[in-house]
């Protein structure tokens, strides 16, 4: 049964922090199990505990099981969640589809869909990109044909994370003509447990299998699973809620603070800090990880002061992704030939974490919008440079 | 620590920008360069009478407005945008702050009220042939001739050193950091102009030969005082650099929006867009670093030194890169003497070196962050 504090308005940030820390300490789910199935159950169990105790969805409305916290308490929430090392999201549903439905869904959709999503009872995954529609997402070709009160969906989606174990794929599908581009796209939820849905894992260049290709062959979705208007899905794509991601920005900075400390420690252990060029490079990472924290503070301060994240927020992701690539590449260089021992083996250093990171951070400037597309967006939306006339208008 | 600007800070920025956009235009700057870069006395008085800028980070009981490093940084950033010619940086940001950071009430009473109202100017002399700016390795010697103290040595790269009424000199006496004040009457015969790459900021070489000087009390821990004076100077340079960098990006973006080639604005090409986006990223990173450094200095946080060095490295990077890319984006016109782009590149490269090069500050960060090899 749900137990909630009647009103958070009198509770100070520090009182809230203490109440949260008590909960996280008392109900901590312990370390993650190794087996993927057990691990999923472990995450889902924890999400249910958080929901049932009133600690889920910091920015979500209360009537949907969320906490509706003011922004500064969201920051406290993210800090303590990160510090306690409890599992948080599974799939991208909570971060991406949830806010979209909160903002654009019908009352019925919200009531029916969101509580199970927030409680972890239902695992949602994203189907946006396609083999032929990456950066140019408005050219997507997965079609949804109307048949009575159902859509019949055909096409392929790619780069879906956590697809195995998914209950719902939230997709962008073509309901208008191909030429209508972003004006002919709808936002549709598709039940993953049906014969017309096939999930094919993709082995990535680092050897992992976190991505899948999802194929729809006459998959069916009720019209009531469409969020927003038919052909009106595109404006829903970049929905965020109460600057949720900005509230977590400090966590990424804190995480990389730890990583830089560990790299400096490794450099000392291996005697690499005797080398001036190594010290110079480490000092650069030291400064960059500090700036990451300062920028996160700035974004949070700006939101609290003015309600808007300000100019630095637009370039933070570019800064952070380049940082993590450079950091891992430097670590491999510093380790010399030891750095090119394949990860995991007995002769790899620190189980090959730096070498693995060197490979896996190649994705940092590709996923969720390539660095090139981000630069275009910054140039056009923030600096006001003209659109490329050879590109379709957005 | 709050990094968002308060409404008072925003008002300060707006009013300084309004004044300088009218009174420190490209034509004004060029006219002052041709006249020897002494600054515009009318503007100097206006800055004082209308906005009280000279007294901004000086305590109220010493004739200032009692604001902090954060506010001073905003003023300097705005001045860096327009390449303001004049002694504000040397007199207010360097010497004024050095006196505020000293523990010499007499010296403060004697000079700060007049620095704060702009009726006199001062500067700070630190570097010597060894090119160190943090007060170490100074060869200038102190002699006692009865009650009188004198200095002997050569101070290099003293901003506005030819025109300042008082020059504060940092050196070492029996390996203890010390600071002295040398009056203009004593420096006139021994100061000469250094031909600086930056046309907007004259620098001097000061030959001291048993020159009379007044000792400034640096309290029980003079090394800590000198470190603070150095950190404040570093933050001041970084603030100016940030303003210059932002201005260069604005110039480049404005040109890229209007200049047409191949029948379209050059800013619609990704080659230009990506340059500009990367510059904005560098500038915003630099701004985060500067905001944090200024707030750290205001709260006298133990992170001040590492934050100041971080700001100096990043503001140097951002400004020099923005100044270079501004020339590149302007193409041929950007390479002309008439275009202001080179004035910014000259200022950028010179500011990189003032109060410690990026290489120096990178090594200072390495020391402060425990990156130096362990014994």
What can you tell me about this protein's structure?
- With 394 residues, chain A is α+β, with helices and mostly antiparallel strands.
- Helices cover 43% and strands 14% of the residues of chain A.
- In chain A, helix 7 (249-269) packs parallel to helix 9.
- In chain A, the strands form 2 sheets. A 4-stranded mixed sheet of chain A has the order 1-4-5-8, covered by helices on one side. A 4-stranded antiparallel sheet of chain A has the order 2-3-7-6, with no helix packed on it.
- In chain A, a hairpin with an 8-residue loop joins strand 6 and strand 7.
- With 375 residues, chain B is of the alpha+beta class.
- Chain B is built from 12 helices and 9 strands.
- In chain B, a hairpin with a 2-residue loop joins strand 4 (166-173) and strand 5 (176-183).
- Classes of the chains: A alpha+beta (394), B alpha+beta (375).
Shape by Cα distribution of chain B: globular
Main sheet overview of chain B = 7 strands, mixed
Helix count of chain A, per DSSP? 11
Total strands of chain B: the figure is 9
Share in β-strands of chain B: 15-25%
Note the quaternary state here: heterodimer
Decide which structural class fits the backbone of chain A: alpha+beta
Q: Which chain pair has the greatest contact?
A: A-B, 48 and 47 residues
- Give the overall shape of chain A, derived from the CA principal axes: globular
Strand order of the largest sheet of chain A: 1-4-5-8
